[in-house]
Specification:
Elements lengths: L1 E10 L3 H17 L4 E6 L11 H4 L6 E10 L2 H13 L17 E5 L11
Antiparallel strand pairs: 1-3, 1-4, 2-3
């Protein structure tokens, strides 16, 4: 298993457009082998004294934080999907993305402990 995680500032007024974009993106990812996509809209984001989700993405007034993760069967499958997306014209149309891509945070992770749903 391999995990890609994102923290994304999304204008609150773009919530519905984001949801449409997220559904389309998830369908494309699943077609490329992604096992699970979770999109979570901000519910409670505490203000930190040094750092927090808002500071991390330079969130502006009126923006909400989305936490998104993808579960892939392996790093190799995820890398192949990224290569396919780079060749897909849908992946290069920034006008369709309802948030500022320059401020999202992305990381990929290899699990070291899995407990609960989906644990092996």
């Amino acid at each position: 298993m391999h995990i890609a995680a994102f923290v994304i500032p999304v204008p609150e007024a773009q919530r519905e457009a984001y949801l449409v974009w997220a559904r389309d993106s998830a369908a494309m990812l699943q077609g490329l082998g992604c096992l699970e996509v979770v999109e979570a809209w901000e519910d409670h984001i505490p203000t930190g004294s040094r750092t927090d989700f808002r500071k991390a993405v330079a969130a502006e007034p009126g923006e909400r934080i989305v936490l998104m993760w993808q579960i892939w069967p392996s790093r190799a499958v995820m890398d192949a999907a990224e290569a396919a997306i780079a060749q897909d014209p849908r992946g290069s149309e920034p006008s369709e993305v309802p948030f500022d891509q320059r401020r999202l945070i992305l990381g990929t992770f290899a699990p070291i402990l899995t407990v609960g749903r989906g644990a092996a």
